[in-house]
Structure formats: structure tokens, C-alpha cells
Design brief:
By secondary structure, the protein is an alpha+beta fold. The chain has one domain. It has helices at about 5-20, 70-80, and strands spanning about 25-30, 35-45, 50-60. The protein has a 3-stranded antiparallel sheet.
Length: about 100
Amino acid sequence: MDTDDDLRRRIEARLRETLHPTATLRGLRPLVGGACQDGFRVDAEVEGAPCRLALRSDARSSLPGSIDRAAEFAVIAAARAAGALTPAARWLSADLVR
């Protein structure tokens, strides 16, 4: 079973791959309220500036009719392309949380 430290190391490594080689994870905490996914608030520092992100992950078990992250990523991209005011889904990563 992964520890919080393992998760933090994986997330920081991904931040460095996707944002900047010196990106640093400053904080990680669970977001409440998700029934179909697990969510985390990610506080990072990128090139000396604060960066706040939301990380969404499939929950260990899903509700009937819920979509996975790949489908959600596509839905968000389509909604933004159609003019919906919603935050961008920046990256789709497999096996980051679990």
C-alpha cells in the first residue's frame, strides 16, 4: 500500500515532468465532496511562483454510470471548445494516484 510520502513523490515528479524541472510540491490535501472520483488540492511552486492545481483520480470503486478520467478529460475539452466556462483539464496521466 502506498504511503502519503509515496504519493507526494509521484506527484512532485509529474509536476517536474509537465511544468518545470525545478517544480516543488508544497502542499497536498484531499478535497471533499466527490462521490465518483478522488480529488486533491495541489499547491506547488513553479519557477518561484505559487501554482494551485486540482488533481482528480478515479476512486477505488465507482458508481454505476460514472465515467473514467479519460472520458472526463475528453468531455471537459469538448465543453471548453464549445465555449463553456470551466477550468481546463491540463494533463491526462495514468497510475499517478493508484
